[in-house]
Protein backbone atom coordinates (compact mmCIF):
# COMPACT_ATOMS: atom_id res chain seq x y z
CA UNK A 1 0.00 0.00 0.00
CA UNK A 2 1.29 3.46 -0.85
CA UNK A 3 2.08 5.72 2.10
CA UNK A 4 0.93 8.85 0.25
CA UNK A 5 -2.76 9.43 -0.38
CA UNK A 6 -3.15 11.81 -3.37
CA UNK A 7 -6.81 12.40 -2.53
CA UNK A 8 -5.97 14.45 0.57
CA UNK A 9 -5.40 18.10 -0.31
CA UNK A 10 -5.50 20.38 2.73
CA UNK A 11 -5.10 20.72 6.48
CA UNK A 12 -3.11 23.43 8.20
CA UNK A 13 -1.72 21.61 11.21
CA UNK A 14 -3.27 19.64 14.03
CA UNK A 15 -1.73 17.74 16.93
CA UNK A 16 -3.43 14.99 18.92
CA UNK A 17 -2.52 13.51 22.29
CA UNK A 18 -2.61 9.73 21.97
CA UNK A 19 -2.51 6.75 24.32
CA UNK A 20 -1.10 4.20 21.83
CA UNK A 21 1.32 5.91 19.44
CA UNK A 22 2.13 2.75 17.49
CA UNK A 23 -1.49 1.86 16.62
CA UNK A 24 -2.35 5.48 15.85
CA UNK A 25 0.70 5.75 13.58
CA UNK A 26 -0.31 2.58 11.72
CA UNK A 27 -3.89 3.87 11.31
CA UNK A 28 -2.95 7.28 9.89
CA UNK A 29 -0.25 5.72 7.71
CA UNK A 30 -2.01 2.56 6.49
CA UNK A 31 -5.72 3.42 6.61
CA UNK A 32 -5.89 7.17 5.99
CA UNK A 33 -2.82 6.92 3.76
CA UNK A 34 -0.68 9.78 5.07
CA UNK A 35 3.09 9.88 4.52
CA UNK A 36 5.12 9.53 7.72
CA UNK A 37 7.61 12.41 7.74
CA UNK A 38 9.43 11.44 10.93
CA UNK A 39 8.93 9.23 13.96
CA UNK A 40 10.45 10.17 17.29
CA UNK A 41 10.28 8.20 20.55
CA UNK A 42 7.11 9.96 21.71
CA UNK A 43 5.74 11.55 18.53
CA UNK A 44 5.02 11.00 14.84
CA UNK A 45 4.62 13.62 12.11
CA UNK A 46 2.69 13.06 8.88
CA UNK A 47 2.73 15.10 5.68
CA UNK A 48 -0.69 16.25 4.45
CA UNK A 49 0.39 18.52 1.59
CA UNK A 50 3.19 20.88 0.64
CA UNK A 51 1.48 23.75 2.42
CA UNK A 52 2.26 27.42 2.11
CA UNK A 53 5.56 29.32 2.25
CA UNK A 54 7.64 26.35 3.35
CA UNK A 55 5.38 25.15 6.19
CA UNK A 56 4.33 21.62 5.33
CA UNK A 57 0.74 20.84 6.30
CA UNK A 58 0.99 18.14 8.98
CA UNK A 59 -0.80 15.92 11.43
CA UNK A 60 1.23 15.36 14.60
CA UNK A 61 0.63 12.62 17.16
CA UNK A 62 2.09 13.00 20.65
CA UNK A 63 2.28 10.12 23.11
CA UNK A 64 1.29 11.71 26.40
CA UNK A 65 0.67 8.56 28.46
CA UNK A 66 3.80 8.94 30.58
CA UNK A 67 3.83 12.75 30.68
CA UNK A 68 0.22 13.67 31.33
CA UNK A 69 -1.34 12.12 34.46
CA UNK A 70 -4.79 13.22 33.29
CA UNK A 71 -5.00 12.76 29.51
CA UNK A 72 -8.09 14.29 27.92
CA UNK A 73 -11.20 12.13 27.94
CA UNK A 74 -13.45 12.11 24.89
CA UNK A 75 -16.27 13.77 26.86
CA UNK A 76 -13.96 16.60 27.97
CA UNK A 77 -11.94 17.04 24.77
CA UNK A 78 -12.52 20.03 22.53
CA UNK A 79 -11.63 17.99 19.42
CA UNK A 80 -14.80 17.14 17.52
CA UNK A 81 -13.27 15.67 14.37
CA UNK A 82 -10.44 15.93 11.83
CA UNK A 83 -11.40 16.81 8.26
CA UNK A 84 -9.23 16.21 5.20
CA UNK A 85 -10.27 17.77 1.89
CA UNK A 86 -10.46 15.43 -1.09
CA UNK A 87 -11.46 15.93 -4.71
CA UNK A 88 -15.03 15.04 -5.70
CA UNK A 89 -13.57 12.65 -8.28
CA UNK A 90 -11.94 10.67 -5.43
CA UNK A 91 -15.04 10.43 -3.20
CA UNK A 92 -16.38 7.04 -4.38
CA UNK A 93 -12.97 5.38 -4.66
CA UNK A 94 -11.96 6.56 -1.18
CA UNK A 95 -15.22 5.21 0.27
CA UNK A 96 -14.64 1.85 -1.44
CA UNK A 97 -10.97 1.79 -0.35
CA UNK A 98 -11.87 2.36 3.30
CA UNK A 99 -14.66 -0.23 3.21
CA UNK A 100 -12.21 -2.67 1.57
CA UNK A 101 -9.92 -2.18 4.57
CA UNK A 102 -12.80 -3.13 6.88
CA UNK A 103 -13.34 0.41 8.12
CA UNK A 104 -16.93 1.24 9.14
CA UNK A 105 -17.92 4.41 7.28
CA UNK A 106 -20.93 6.66 7.23
CA UNK A 107 -21.72 9.41 4.75
CA UNK A 108 -23.51 12.72 4.84
CA UNK A 109 -24.44 15.59 2.56
CA UNK A 110 -24.27 19.15 3.85
CA UNK A 111 -26.60 21.05 1.50
CA UNK A 112 -25.97 24.50 2.94
CA UNK A 113 -22.31 24.39 1.73
CA UNK A 114 -22.68 21.71 -0.97
CA UNK A 115 -20.29 19.30 0.70
CA UNK A 116 -20.29 15.52 0.65
CA UNK A 117 -18.53 13.71 3.53
CA UNK A 118 -17.26 10.29 4.52
CA UNK A 119 -16.89 9.71 8.28
CA UNK A 120 -14.99 6.99 10.17
CA UNK A 121 -13.13 6.60 13.46
CA UNK A 122 -9.46 6.18 14.31
CA UNK A 123 -8.34 3.58 16.90
CA UNK A 124 -8.77 6.05 19.80
CA UNK A 125 -12.29 7.10 18.83
CA UNK A 126 -11.58 10.39 17.04
CA UNK A 127 -13.89 11.01 14.11
CA UNK A 128 -12.09 11.46 10.79
CA UNK A 129 -13.84 13.09 7.82
CA UNK A 130 -12.97 13.11 4.14
CA UNK A 131 -14.88 16.02 2.61
CA UNK A 132 -15.32 17.38 -0.91
CA UNK A 133 -17.30 20.13 -2.59
CA UNK A 134 -20.13 18.74 -4.74
CA UNK A 135 -22.18 21.29 -6.72
CA UNK A 136 -25.01 18.74 -7.11
CA UNK A 137 -25.66 18.63 -3.34
CA UNK A 138 -28.44 20.90 -2.24
Question: Which properties best describe this structure?
Answer:
four-stranded mixed β-sheet; 2 helices; globular; alpha/beta; 138 residues
Radius of gyration (CA) equals: 15 Å
Structural class: alpha/beta
Oligomeric assembly: single chain
- What strand line-up does the widest sheet have? 1-4-3-2
SSE arrangement, N to C: EHEEEEHEEE
Unreliable segments of 5+ consecutive residues: none
- Supply the number of helical segments: 2
Strand percentage: 35-45%
Shape descriptor reads: globular
Number of strands: 8
Largest sheet descriptor: 4 strands, mixed
Separation, N- and C-terminal Cα atoms = 35 Å
The residue-averaged pLDDT reads 84
Helix coverage percent = 10-25%
Describe the structure.
Helix content is 15%, strand content 40%. It has helices at residues 21-31, 91-100; strands at 13-18, 35-40, 43-52, 55-63, 81-85, 106-110, 115-121, 127-133. The chain has a four-stranded mixed β-sheet, covered by helices on one side. The chain starts with 12 loop residues before the first strand and ends in a 5-residue tail after the last strand. The mean pLDDT is 84.
Amino acid sequence: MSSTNPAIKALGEIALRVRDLDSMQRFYQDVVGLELMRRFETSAFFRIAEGFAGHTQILALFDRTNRDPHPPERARSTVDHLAFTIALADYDSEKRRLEGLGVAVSTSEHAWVRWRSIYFQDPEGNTVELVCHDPSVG
